[in-house]
Amino acid sequence: MRRLGELEAEIMDRFWRWQRAATVREIVDDINRHRDTAYTTVTTVTGILFHKGHLTRTREGRVWLYRAAATREAYAAALMEDGLDASEDRTAALARFVENLDADELAALRTALRDAERRTEG
Q1: Residue-wise DSSP of 23-81
Q2: Are 50 and 56 in contact (CB under 8 A)?
Q3: pLDDT in tens, 7-30
Q4: What gap in Å lies between CA 64 and CA 56, rounded to an integer?
Q5: Considering the entire predicted model, what is its pTM?
Q6: Which residues pair with 66 in a beta bridge?
């Protein structure tokens, strides 16, 4: 999975934060509170995000309503998986990643590992 470009990330951030469907107009209006972005540019990038599978869409009258296809956390997990795939030694890459975690992240990882272990046992 490729990292999102700057505007792609800005658009996806809104869907992830809002946790609801939205129109391109809503996205443009929100972005334009901080900087000028053309409606056509956001329409194009939103279409690209749909075709890449990051967004779903449904027609409501004459307007498309878009929604995030997955959570921000699922996207981040896919990026981490791709990062492991980039290594010739996934185990070493994973170990290096774990070395960089702080105490809270290590505790969360331990919990996730215990939960995963229970799911595979049960």
Answers
A1: -HHHHHHHHTTTS---HHHHHHHHHHHHHTTSEEEEEETTEEEEEESS-HHHHHHHHHH
A2: yes
A3: 999 999 999 999 999 999 999 999
A4: 10
A5: 0.84
A6: 22, 57
